[in-house]
Amino acid sequence: YQSKRRNDGPVLYDPAFDAASSQTLTLLGELRHAVDHRELRLYLQPKLALDTGHVVGAEALLRWEHPRRGLVPPMEFIPFAEQTGFIRTLTLWVFEEAARMWRVLNEAGLRITISVNLSTRDLLDVELPQKFEALLVKHIVPAEGFCLEITESSIMDDPQRAMSTLERLSGLGFRLSIDDFGTGYSSLAYLKRLPVDEIKIDRSFVMSMEKDPNDARIVRSTIDLAHGLGLTVVAEGVENAQVWQLLREQACDEAQGFHMSRPLPSSEFISWSTGWTTRLSAMKLKGESRM
Ligand code: C2E
Ligand code: MG
Ligand code: MG
Ligand code: MG
């Protein structure tokens, strides 16, 4: 991949790009085709409140159902889309799809927040807030129903511009979250000034915190930091019951992970949630607190 650029202006020549240009054009063509021919899928992974066990949100995660290659994970095309600028088209597709899903879930009685991932390029797009606002109006959905996830590094790429985009998104009513917290360039000075509502602890610290005391310490201090700043804290990558229990004891607010559910096709999300709620009430009747 190309080295990171400081802004999103036109790139006239980049040797790394040139060497792979025919491959690049092929993949870019295939991605355009994917959008036009409905090969993209938005999966939903539930986010649960640790104290009650209730489903409080879902993260929207992109998949590409490639006619020959099968289900392509995002890490195989998102970095490329970011590099070429095509991510802006993808992000608008993702947000519009998330808005449609929010309506469907809401009408089924699920009052939850849908989280959408934004990339660096999106934060540098001064028109992003108005594009999102137009989609809210088109689908008659409230900004408060969505949380936008951004990484520390994407903010630090051009802090001034990112800050102004984030302030406008927050002004519209969107919730904002810092994703993969602890892995990127972090600036606590910016964190304090940003209009964020939530921090997501990266799964690399959460996944084995029941075995690794250093990971457990990092998670604990991140929870304290978040609470000290008045932010909600979410742990991603909860893969077993011990980790769920530890996070509960440390008063972490929300959790997401394979232990509860993998990302699901949207058609399966409602039935999963219904089943989960039923199991939860059964456990409460029996007085079980462990999951
Ligand atoms: P992310 O935003 O940090 O998303 C969480 C990732 O962790 C997802 O991977 C999810 O499947 C995975 N995960 C959740 N729980 C567990 C667990 O318990 N164990 C393990 N090992 N993994 C877990 P996924 O779907 O492959 O997405 C990878 C990354 O791709 C995302 O990381 C995000 O950075 C990016 N991405 C996905 N969809 C989009 C999108 O629509 N737009 C943008 N810009 N990026 C996206
Ligand atoms: Mg995310
Ligand atoms: Mg994450
Ligand atoms: Mg992550």
From TrEMBL:
Limits of the EAL domain: 24-277
Origin: domain of life: Bacteria
Q: What is this protein called?
A: EAL domain-containing protein
The scientific name of the source species is Piscinibacter gummiphilus
